[in-house]
Specification:
Blueprint: H1 3-26, H2 28-50, H3 59-68, H4 78-81, H5 89-95, H6 98-106, H7 113-120, H8 142-157, H9 168-178, H10 185-198
Helix pairs in contact: 1-2, 2-3, 2-8, 3-7, 3-8, 6-7, 7-8, 8-9, 9-10
């Protein structure tokens, strides 16, 4: 990566860290989830690079987008974020605005427009039935497709107010079931390979 871009990103990152702290005050669970998604994404990227894969991917942008993927939840009502049960359709629509809110919040920060795009599209689906724009398969930015998988894995394996987290094996089965529908099937296979290597 160009050194000047890296310097600009580091300055913008300091600003965005303040947004992360706002999330921590608003919803501790979202902050913890964002940190886990960041850490696991970073670990996966390191693994892929060690196998001479993702060599053309901007890993710095990927990692920042993973950390910031839910920053738009600062614009979601507390009663929706912290609701212990299922959301109504209206509440679900409101929650789904968080990816667009996050994009709007950070898109003008110097040097991170590609990170903002990654944040915007992390809930797009491989089959085109995601949001906010209904992008399909490879039209979804690679960064977003990667975060989508890690985000879902963490959501499945983490405790929520209304349910206990499921096991890694159960999460893998869910990812495999949704490969080609919600998730990029090739990336699902790579993620599962990473998880198996991680546990050996």
């Amino acid at each position: 990566m160009d050194q000047s871009i890296q310097i600009v990103r580091e300055k913008s990152f300091d600003l965005v860290q303040n947004l992360i702290q706002i999330i921590s005050l608003k919803d501790k669970n979202t902050l913890e989830h964002s940190n886990r998604v960041y850490s696991l994404t970073r670990e996966w990227a390191t693994y892929m690079r060690s196998r001479w894969s993702w060599t053309d991917l901007d890993v710095s942008a990927l990692e920042l987008a993973a950390l910031l993927h839910d920053v738009g939840k600062v614009g979601v009502l507390d009663e929706i974020l912290q609701k212990p049960g299922a959301l109504t359709p209206v509440e679900r629509d409101h929650l789904e605005q968080h990816s667009e809110i996050g994009y709007q919040m950070i898109r003008d920060f110097p040097g991170i427009s590609d990170i903002a795009i990654g944040v915007r599209h992390h809930h797009e689906r491989w089959d085109g039935r995601g949001y906010p724009l209904g992008l399909k398969d490879t039209k979804i930015p690679t960064i977003s497709r990667i975060i989508n998988i890690v985000d879902a894995f963490d959501a499945i394996t983490s405790d929520r107010p209304y349910r206990k987290g499921r096991s890694q094996n159960e999460a893998i089965l869910e990812l495999q079931k949704e490969a080609g529908r919600q998730f990029d099937p090739a990336l699902v296979n790579e993620f599962i390979g990473f998880l198996h290597a991680r546990n050996t």
